[in-house]
Design a protein that fits this description.
With 413 residues, the chain is α/β, with parallel strands linked by helices. The protein has helices at residues 6-10, 38-51, 61-81, 95-110, 129-138, 155-161, 184-193, 213-216, 241-244, 281-297, 299-318, 347-356, 369-374, 391-410; strands at residues 19-20, 23-24, 26-27, 89-92, 116-120, 141-145, 166-172, 197-201, 220-224, 235-239, 257-260, 265-267, 323-326, 337-342, 359-360, 362-364, 380-384. Helix 5 links the parallel strand 5 and strand 6. Helix 3 (61-81) packs across helix 10, helix 4 packs parallel to helix 5 (129-138) and helix 11 (299-318) runs parallel beside helix 14 (391-410). The model has no long low-confidence stretch (mean pLDDT 96). The chain binds 4'-deoxy-4'-aminopyridoxal-5'-phosphate. The site of 4'-deoxy-4'-aminopyridoxal-5'-phosphate has 14 residues, from helix 4.
Length: 413
């Protein structure tokens, strides 16, 4: 029996049903952003049609409805990632904002000269630059965990690198280039054994697998709505209460204050002290709808189905001569993100040729320049699958790759 009824699920995504360059669209750029199901579009529409008002302020009916829906979305997020309480769920613009806030606020309060911040060579720029800047401000030391040949974190090196000097370990749960799943629970144990905190970039994990922040025992977890069927401009910063309470807000203004005196002010309690100004109310509510949608399918099933797609695609890619795949060779170790290069063909040309066949993939450095340098390449092409992609689409992708290779090698299709 099929793991998912993908044909039925695809009907929920009107955007997938279109023709691009005379070919049916095959959307394989899900690591950049995912498409939105009708249920999420409907919720956005309904909110602006019926409930739109500012939150936490008004006593009128619409304001109460908007506030209730906004806070209900927070509870959905809490349950989805198994946070202990909604006080630990802060709405942000996305992963980038969440990680920046940790670096700025936690970093400001707790990082001292000579402290070490440990990241890895596979981090997205959003989990590199905030730490670089913090290290510069505080004269702290930034360290990179090296990778094994297949693109796993070198855990032996990590064990040696994480010491009593370490203050922060910040690692992606899933790489947006290599498609590996990193052992963040193990890293959290290592970090905690040395009184360091564990920060997890969950941009590529939360959309694809069941996440339990308490089981992982991470101290902060960041992710984006738009990579999990939600809208852009909304994301989440999860943090343990004991840290969030000791942290100063990053932004100040309306919504986040308790009392404002002329020369001093006090903040609301968690999570609102971090949410200055009018938040992305519609975005948060629609993220809640995206979570409902994903939970109806089931995160275990989504993960299982994506693994089955990878098990189908990866060997076929591995069989193409002149094609290098970055990341694990074993499909079981590889998520739906597959970065690759054709010998002698620039990845931008590969992506352009695939687009001519209706297949949308990405090419470039994928906001991971330290990794691209580490791999010693200029750029890569990247296909990234989601639960609504089919085997037939995988076949189209493989066929388009063969045609591309043929074209560049022999000048004919
Ligand atoms: N981290 C990783 C691993 C990502 O893949 C991304 C998005 N490409 C980000 C962080 C940043 O997410 P956003 O642009 O939504 O803030």
């Amino acid at each position: 029996e099929a793991i998912l009824d993908v044909a039925t699920l695809r009907k929920d995504f009107p955007i997938l049903d279109q023709v691009v360059n005379d070919e049916a669209l095959v959307y394989l750029d899900n690591a950049a952003t995912t498409q939105k199901p009708q249920a999420v579009l409907d919720v956005l529409n309904h909110y602006y049609h019926h409930d739109n008002a500012n939150v936490h302020r008004g006593v009128h009916t619409l304001a109460e409805r908007a506030t209730q829906a906004y806070e209900a979305a927070r509870e959905k997020v809490r349950r989805f990632i198994q946070a202990k309480e909604t006080a630990e769920v802060i709405f942000t613009r996305g992963t980038t904002t969440s990680l920046n806030w940790i670096a700025q606020s936690y970093g400001e309060a707790f990082i001292k000269e000579g402290d070490e911040i440990v990241i890895s060579y596979m981090e997205h720029h959003a989990n590199v630059i905030p730490w670089q800047q913090l290290a510069k401000r505080k004269k702290a030391v930034l360290k990179y965990i090296p990778l094994t040949e297949e693109g796993f974190l070198d855990m032996q090196a990590a064990q040696a690198m994480i010491t009593d000097k370490t203050a922060i370990v910040a690692i992606a749960h899933v790489s947006n280039v290599l498609g590996v799943i990193n052992p963040v629970a193990e890293l959290a144990k290592l970090a905690h054994a040395h009184q360091a905190i564990m920060v997890v970039d969950g941009a590529q994990s939360v959309p694809h697998m069941k996440i339990d922040v308490q089981a992982l025992d991470c101290d902060f977890y960041a992710f984006s709505g738009h990579k999990m069927c939600g809208p852009t401009g909304i994301g989440v910063l999860y943090g343990k209460r004991k840290y969030l309470e000791q942290m100063e807000p990053v932004e100040f203004g309306g919504e986040m204050i308790d009392f404002v005196h002329l020369y001093d002010s006090t903040w609301k309690e968690l999570p609102w002290k971090f949410e200055a100004g009018t938040p992305n109310i519609a975005g948060a509510i629609a993220l809640g709808a995206a979570i409902d949608y994903l939970e109806t399918i089931g995160m275990e099933k989504i993960h299982q189905y994506e693994q089955s797609l990878v098990a189908y695609v990866l060997p076929q890619l591995q069989a193409i001569e002149g094609l290098t795949i970055y990341g694990p060779k074993d499909p079981k170790e590889h998520t739906g993100v597959i970065a690759f290069n054709f010998e002698g063909i620039h990845p931008h040309d590969v992506a352009t040729a695939l687009d001519m066949e209706g297949v949308a993939v990405r090419a470039g450095h994928h906001c991971a320049q330290p990794l691209i340098q580490y791999l010693d390449v200029q750029a890569t092409a990247r296909a990234s699958f989601y639960f609504y992609n089919t085997k037939a689409e995988a076949d189209r992708f493989i066929a388009a790759l063969h045609a591309t290779k043929e074209f560049f090698q022999n000048g004919t299709i």
